[in-house]
Design brief:
Layout (H helix, E strand, L loop, with lengths): L6 H15 L5 H8 L3 H8 L7 H10 L4 H15 L3 H17 L8 H8 L1 H9 L9 H8 L3 H13 L3 E4 L2 E4 L13 H20 L19 H20 L25
Antiparallel strand pairs: 1-2
Helix pairs in contact: 1-10, 4-5, 5-6, 7-8, 7-11, 9-10
Length: 270
């Protein structure tokens, strides 16, 4: 949580985490668990109301936080909402010190992890390039088929890691091309690809053939050819991305191109 610079983001991230665990979980349930009135919680998250130090301490008692995490949260609240300028300055310094102590734990990578591991983050970024795109979270939620809670959390997360910016109340993608390291085993990357495969399994049943392309080649190979095969596939992916990314043609949909190459045979018994 030390990568967050606003306590509202910590609360929204926790709400999103609980929602993923239980899709029936709601803002009202979250307010109940934090022992705060639902309408007040909404206004706090929207920045319309602040929290007192005692309220912040009360909230941290409802969350599964370490002592340093509790101190960090409370200091963020004081730094943002205290009426005393002196207390705000001191709390900001305290929060910075706590954050610095935890930099080596690589918690700054958590947002990147989530951008990679949940498919709709990249889809949301591409959505911003469509003709007729709306920055309204409700529109994005409907377009991607995800919840409003997931949508708002994703927008906030992408803003924090610098992949989305907002100008004149409109969201813009800041990077044209993003990728992950090749041949690196990562739970985040695995989760992302599993989600894409699950989406593909639905698409093959629900989308008409003129809107999709599914193909498979079964081939006997020498495993010494794998490096060359991977190189060819990666080159093809780049060529496709360049093809659809260029020009001034208006874009109407976000597509996923997913290629799989894997061994269908078992290792010989020892």
């Amino acid at each position: 949580m030390f990568h967050f610079s606003r306590y509202q983001d910590i609360l929204e991230d926790e709400l999103d985490r609980r929602y993923k665990t239980n899709p029936m979980y709601s803002m009202r349930a979250f307010a109940r668990d934090l022992d705060i009135h639902p309408s007040r919680l909404c206004e706090v998250l929207q920045g319309k109301q602040g929290l007192s130090e005692s309220s912040a301490s009360k909230i941290t008692a409802s969350l599964d936080l370490s002592k340093n995490e509790r101190d960090y949260f409370v200091n963020l609240v004081i730094a943002q909402d205290s009426r005393s300028k002196t207390m705000r300055v001191v709390a900001k310094k305290n929060a910075s010190k706590i954050r610095e102590l935890h930099q080596e734990t690589k918690l700054m990578d958590i947002d990147s992890f989530r951008v990679i591991s949940d498919w709709y983050h990249f889809a949301l970024m591409e959505l911003t390039t469509l003709e007729g795109f709306s920055s309204d979270p409700a529109w994005i939620s409907q377009k991607l088929g995800i919840s409003l809670v997931e949508t708002r959390a994703a927008i906030g997360r992408l803003k924090r890691v610098g992949l989305l910016i907002e100008k004149d109340h409109r969201l813009f993608q800041t990077e044209e091309a993003l990728g992950t390291p090749n041949d690196v085993a990562s739970s985040a990357i695995k989760k992302f690809h599993k989600q894409i495969l699950e989406k593909a399994a639905v698409a093959v049943e629900t989308q008409p053939t003129d809107s999709r392309e599914f193909g498979c080649e079964l081939m006997a190979i020498n495993k010494n050819q794998l490096a060359k095969l991977k190189e060819c596939i990666r080159k093809f992916r780049k060529e496709v991305a360049t093809l659809v990314g260029g020009g001034a043609s208006p874009k109407s949909s976000v597509y996923a191109l997913s290629l799989q190459l894997f061994d269908l045979t078992q290792e010989d018994p020892k």
